[in-house]
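Entry 14. Structure prediction run on the chain below.
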Amino acid sequence: MKALAFPKTARLLRPADYSKVFENVRVRVSHRHFLLLATPNDLGHARVGLIFAKKHLKLAVQRNRVKRLVRETFRQQHGLPAMDIVVLGRQGLAQVENPRLHGILNDLWQRLKRKAPKVIPESQAPDGRTSSTVTDHPTGVEKGTG
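Output returned:
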């Protein structure tokens, strides 16, 4: 069985790629240990970028373990929309075991897939501005902004 690849085309590589996501967040999926920010892209496939601070994961081995799990679960997803996604780690992540992280990440990818179709494409937005943002809070509240 061939291992799933993680080519450069599936990664956010340049600072400009990350800036595009931060400046134009269209979908936000939140969890106690992770935050996923996403914006549509014109590439026809999803790309992911990872941000895990030393403040939350002190040791390199911890950061590498979590990044490896995020990449693995990302590769296993089918039907992710064409979006640039930034995954940020939050406090307490170092104490979570691998099987639990797997479950959390798979749930976050599924929530992202459900929320992405609710985002109106930018081409339909008046005056080219972002017309909606879907935010996922633990309370289930969704907000729209103009």
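The helical segments are 15-23, 60-75, 98-115.
Filed with the rest of this week's runs.
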